[in-house]
Amino acid sequence: MGLFSLYTLGIDLLPQLIYPEIRVRTWVDKQLSKWFINLPGVAAAQVGGGLVREIQVLPDQQRLVALGLSLEDVIKALKQANVESAGGRLYMPEQEISTRVKGRWQRVEDIAMAPC
Fold it and tell me: SUPFAM superfamilies from the entry (predicted)?
């Protein structure tokens, strides 16, 4: 098994910013962590803490019954439609880029248009 190093970047090392906590966490997830992953020798970047944006879906129970669907059917359909996966790494001279297949919802409207 190879040796590895583990580094932790504390928020106190970053410039003082005044933004809502959810916005900062989203930026770290979507931008800063991706920057770290593209550095040579970095295998993973894990984000922890902060508030994670959440969208609650509240199904109409009467409509579910009328359609013959259960709450589990809705949950399964939502999970299948909201997927993001690793696409691999692109190796070029002097550069290595990680790729992702985007499928996660960004807005409430995206959920409404899902084929659930």
Answer: Multidrug efflux transporter AcrB TolC docking domain, DN and DC subdomains
